[in-house]
Hints:
By secondary structure, chain A is mainly alpha-helical. Chain A is built from 5 helices and no strands.
Amino acid sequence: MTRKTVDRAVLVLLIVMAVLLYFSTAYYKGIAIKTSAKYVQFLAVFIGGLSVVQLGHSLLKDRSHDRLVLTGHLPRFLGLLVALIIFALVFEPLGFFIPAAIFIPVMSYMLGYRNLLTIGLTTVGVLGFVYLVFIQLLSVNLPGINF
Amino acid sequence: MFEYLAIVFSGPALLTIAIGTVAGVAIGGMPGLTATMAVGLLVPFTYTMDPTMGLMLLGGIYCGAMYGGSIPAILLNTPGTPAAVATAIEGYPMSKKGKAGLALKVSVIASFTGGMFSIMILLLFAPVLARQALAFGPAETFLLALMGLAGIISIADENSSLLKALIAGLLGMIIAVVGTDDMSGSQRYTMGLVELVDGIDFMPALIGLFSMIQMLELAGMQHHTVDTSALHKKQKSEPMPKGIGKHIALGSGTGTVIGILPGEGATIAAFISYNLSKRISKTKELFGKGNPEGIAAAESGNNGCVGGSLVPTLTLGIPGNSVAAALMGAFIIHGMIPGPDLFTEYANRTYPFIISMFVANGVFLIVGLSFAPYLARIALIPPALMVPVVSAFAVLGSYALNNSVFDVYLMIAFALGGLVIKKLGYSLEALILGLILGPIAEGGFTQGMIIGHGSPMIFFHSNIAKVMWVIILALLIPPLYSYYKMVRGGKPQAE
């Protein structure tokens, strides 16, 4: 997809959001009608207005056809993103150490690093650092299984 | 003052500052990692620390990282931080000529001088400015937030357009609306999620927008080999070039002033100082070919930003740049709201924090003069190892502040959404400033409207308010006029 198409889609979304935001203030209750509602309306009007101007500018002047490139290496980018989501999903039941002990070496390998000894030492080093500094020294409470 | 000095010069405090500064130099030396990322990532972990120690640690990281970026810039032509790009322009050619030792010396002395000068300005002027803030009512507080928004305009650079910077700032303010309405106690836009009742914390947003985005970008980047020949060349000790002092002084002053302006960052300070130095130089022809004057100006400029950026942050609650925004988060999570209270009620924490940054500058001066060539090797750490480690810390940091996995999801969402809008030319700095300024603006606006019985004239009533309007207009008119001229002239606008 081209950059300008995505940009225009984002601007349209912002305009829709501004309209919804403005009208949502009709449901405010009590003192909020006189205070918070005015503030939210102020934000809605400004972001909506600016988005309309930017969209108009894009429609009239933007003749570019360059593609929107989020990353130079999609599999690695998506791999990191998916791994992060899995990390977050298992964070509560398993805690930090077990997911991190899998996440760091797997991601290093996936990103192209092949020295397994360095990967292993880095993983052990990071986990040891987190244990000593965050658990023992700073008493940070982590969920799930701790050591 | 002696009691504050005693706090800073105690054993644990000195150790904390030294650890923070050395860590900052190392982080600044790693391409892809910035001071904002490091400070943002570590703020949640300081929650359980003694507040003064936590702030000293973060202050050390800020000072160290600002300098650290120059080392790989000079030796490897790989700026550790964006603020060190101008340093690389002069530093790397010097390294190729076998003058890396001199370049590193100029860099660390200029960084030290710029940092010390700006922190001195912070120490002298911040309490005075904070006292003025006592006269501020809700209307003036709202106008302060508007001033911050006006500062957002100045964030707009060649990569982000003026309108898009404003839109991003407003989007941040709208995100800040989510949660419980302080005036009525009712919930807004929480979609029934308990996790959103207290609103969207800006720390996961900050970690997502400034740390995780960089990791996503690094993960998808094609890596190139770095020329390490300068690391192996023998360096002879050379004296500082004559006349370099005026370039350091110019950079220190420029960096401090630019740092004070809300929204302006170290990169802009470094480039403006570099350009000014080029104009006054007697050896203009050497610029771009390895002129130590350029390094002196750029480094004193970006380090001058450190103290400057903290002036509006600590006194008015308006962050000077994104690192200052992260530091402001640290003050807030320790219950210290920026403003006059920092210099009265919390003086025993604020002054030691400021004084600790003098020490941090001394630490990186020693480190830089002794170990700089060895530290450059940090830049050679493969991104494939760095990305998973920093990502794991990003997950941990997002979780640690509120013990909430929801914040980890928020961090990932901000990283992904932030990457898309960054690629479209929206300013992430503006977004985060909007998120921070949002509650300040809303509080001032709603209370002002109540005091003014619903009339917006309250925002024009006091003399302070009138002066603030003048400042806001002064901040807005020049960039708007330039933008108007650019659009009228048909010059292609960056998007």
